[in-house]
Amino acid sequence: MREAPPPAPTCADLFLGFLTTGLCGFGGVLPWARRMVVERRRWLSAAEFTDLLGLCQFLPGPNVINLSVALGARFHGVRGSAAAFAGLMSAPTVIVIALGFAYHRLAAIPIVAHAFVTLSAAASALVLATAIKIATPLRERPIGALVGLATFAAVAWLRWPLPLVIVGAVPVSALLTWAVEARATVRRR
Amino acid sequence: MRQLAALAGIFAQLSLVAFGGGNSILPEMQRQVVQVHPWITAQDFAALYALAQAAPGPNMLVSALIGLRVAGVPGALVALGSLCAPSSALTFVCAGFWHRFHTRPWRIVVQRALAPVTAGLVMAGAALLVRTTGRSVGLDLLILVATALFLLTRIHPLLVLAAATALGASGLIG
Lengths: 189, 174
Prior knowledge:
Mean pLDDT of chain A: 89
Oligomer: heterodimer
Radius of gyration of chain A: 21 Å
Helix content of chain A: over 70%
Radius of gyration of chain B: 18 Å
Strand content of chain B: under 5%
Structural class of chain A: mainly alpha
Helix content of chain B: over 70%
Order of helices and strands of chain B: HHHHHHHH
Distance between the termini of chain A: 43 Å
Largest sheet of chain B: none
Low-confidence stretches of chain B: none
Number of strands of chain B: 0
Number of strands of chain A: 0
Shape of chain B: globular
């Protein structure tokens, strides 16, 4: 026998659920959001969550922010989106602005300045690790790896503006992906 | 007022090209606020991004820190709001009919085509940050070890950031 699904969340539930998620989310909020939505509050099944996340990863914008908007919309339209978004962002925004003021005041103190030199280096390492994780699956896709390299060169080395790179790289990449995969399908037959 | 309008313009544009999430727009954000509008130095950018990573919430709160530096609290709210609003509006509109196109072949091709572009963009962001922050052999070594820890162990990232901060504060590495 299946358990009855819990009742749909109210706007207050959405706000509070995302409030705790936003506060937990050190170094990546998305895993915490999944835990809250699927495991703890059971607003969505695991499959529904993955499907909704697919939308948020497809569209531009920070994924977890898109997720709060899409989930809120699903239950209560604009009000739901606003409640979930406000829950996710309000507390971290206040905290980060306070930290920004503190940093501005304290950055002249040598010990703080030194601490920030190494913290910044470690934070770069975190982005580098993320980049390596994202790029690793491209080993299976030689053409994809070339597109990735070209994008990298255009942005990091030539310093082209991003909108230009997106407008250039995405259609080319889509065309190549489509051509390669259509050929692979033909060969399989 | 002009600063606020410039912040709004930059971050609203970034919002709509952030395919693959926030990290993909790091290089363009850096280009805009360090080169195009020389508001902060590359070192400052790396420090503010580190602060946003160490704080709770999405890393894209770095937009609030940049806005704060440029135009105080109104700047912080304008930058963050401009980064969130366009993509959120688009998500809200698309959430209604995602079920109608999410199994279409073109959707799958576009998503697979975005992956290498995103990888290149995030790698470019990482390269810019590493180039800015690896200012000595000791710091390069720290970046290498930290990257290995993030990739190969299950140690919580915040612990690694805290340990690095302590190493810097104690003067052992710098």
